[in-house]
Amino acid sequence: MKTVLYTRVLIWTPIIFIGYFISAQIGFKIAFLNSQVSPVWPPEGVGLASLLLLGPIALPGIYLGATLANFFNNPHIQTAFIIGIGNTLSSYVNYRIIKRVAEKTDPIYSTKNLIYFLSIGTIPGSFISTVLGVTSLWYWDFLSTELYFNVFFTWFSGEMLGFLIVAPLLYVWFHPKAKLKLELHKQVELLLWIILVYVSGTIAFSDEWPLLFLPIPFVIVTSIRFRQFGATLATVVLAFTAVTLTIDGKGVFARRDESGLSINDSLIFLDAFLFCISGIAYFLVTATRERERAQQASLNSLQVLNELKEKANEELEKKVLERTAVIEEQRVEIEKQLDMAKRIQESLFPQKEIFPEGVEILFKNIPMMKVGGDLYDIVWRPEKQELGVFICDVSGHGIPAALLSALVKTSLDKWKEDPSDLKENLESIRTQIIPNLREHFVTASLLHLHTDSGSLTFARAGHFPLFIIRKSGALVSLKPMGRIITPIFAILAEEERFQLETGDLIVMLTDGLTEAREPESLQMFGEERLLHLIRDMRGLPLKEIRDQVFQSVIQISGGITAIQDDLTFGLIRYTGSVDEKVKVGS
């Protein structure tokens, strides 16, 4: 590894040295004050681009180029030595900052990268180089004290423009993975746009037609058409044109004082203009590149989603086929065990008489087969005048659903101990049953009622709303949030409270009642039809209402043997006093 590193240093050091030295001569051509203060210092762009492309192995070439270029221009070893250190440090400091904060070393890869580059990726290094360079010139009497800060700002802005304009150009055009591949007519088009930038810049910075805004649309079009390649090339051409003409005393930024043209003041204003133009061009490029990446990411995501969808469909189809085969093999044995299962399931429903004070209550269940997945349970705590009601519907029919309903029954112990905390009880039920749910799910509701005050609380997990038919016939529906019980996600149940009045009738049910269908038309019995039927009979005894509802549902289904789902139906009438006892049962 060390041998490879040394070899790379030996190869790249003379190349970077030559590039740095040549770019320094270009900078000196437009320099003033003993030919060492340049309004644009291209070598800083060479140094930063070399570090971004090659890493720290570029440092020897940068330092040698900076020191020898300054000494060649002004044979004073001390200033050349210190300015070389400043130039090297400025590039390295900015390089380290960009590497640390940016997602990629490309200065115009994204808007975030560009903001980092324009601020903390150029200012710190420029400041270091300026302090060392200007101070060394002042210390060895190449610069008077009166001119120190004027030269300081010019030096600083020149360093900034070197980083801002030259570094992106070299990075983009010399990056091995960012080659500009254009057909001949595109190359000709790019050349024409660059010529237009040059011509418009010449006009904008002339005394005859000071149309400062003229180059801007050409820079923008070049940036949009050719992305980072066009933006960097256009800004360099415009900068070169603007600087050379301003130094010749032409254009709106040529500032004059008593002694004539004030190059220092002129170039400070010019540098601000070039900063804005290059910033606009770079931001257009980053916005375009980010949009293209977002579109590509969207296409990739869509492809992945389609692949996942196909895979999910295949897996679902496979599971359905496997489950069907298993059910067919077990059908005969299941029929033999249905009678026993029926007796067992009947024991899951309330077995003793319950006489809650202040309410009439009546529930009934009719399974589709001999067993089913519906379940209800009731808790009455006379010492607290609390009534708790639980109702649920397990997906599926027959023995599998019956087994799961038995599992649900075993999870109700916590609820029976304290039926008041509905949300916690629903989560407790889910926690206990989800290891055995697999492809099944459960909908459930919990009701808690203080029979002495009529204060009612209701929560559900994907189940029907709680329907309350007022004594006047008005219908109230309680619909708190709550998702079905599955192993996939939490219930997130909420509670809703309601104050009952004497004569209010509560309706609880499972979907077998509302989804009963006529054999021929397949028209469902429906929720609206069911509630309308109950409302018309609200003053009758609960047993008559119950019998009429079951009779209507079974009739529309084509008979008791034709029902397509388990039927569970419950009625609770709030009396407000102990004026009637109704036995709970089927």
Which features would summarize this protein structure in a list?
586 residues; alpha+beta; Arp2/3 complex 21 kDa subunit ARPC3; Phosphatase 2c, domain 1; five-stranded antiparallel β-sheet; 16 helices; elongated
Query: How many strand segments?
Result: 12
Query: Number of helical segments?
Result: 16
End-to-end separation: 85 Å
Q: What's the level 1 CATH class of one domain? A: Alpha Beta
Estimated structural class: alpha+beta
Average pLDDT figure: 85
Radius of gyration: 42 Å
GO molecular function: phosphatase activity
Subcellular location: Cell membrane
Main location: membrane
Membrane topology: Multi-pass membrane protein
Q: Could you please describe the fold and organization of this structure?
A:
- The protein is α+β, with helices and mostly antiparallel strands and 586 residues long.
- 56% of the residues lie in helices and 12% in strands.
- The chain contains 16 helices and 12 strands.
- The protein has helices spanning 2-29, 42-54, 59-73, 77-101, 111-118, 123-139, 148-174, 184-204, 215-247, 263-346, 398-410, 413-417, 422-433, 511-514, 527-536, 542-557; strands at 256-257, 260-261, 359-366, 374-381, 386-394, 442-450, 455-461, 466-469, 475-478, 496-499, 505-509, 567-574.
- Strands 3-12-11-8-9 form a 5-stranded antiparallel sheet. A 5-stranded antiparallel sheet has the order 4-5-6-7-10.
- A hairpin with a 5-residue loop joins strand 8 (466-469) and strand 9.
- The radius of gyration is 42 Å and the shape is elongated.
- This is Serine/threonine protein phosphatase.
- Its main location: membrane.
- It holds the Pfam family MASE1.
- Keywords: Cell membrane, Coiled coil, Hydrolase, Membrane, Transmembrane, Transmembrane helix.
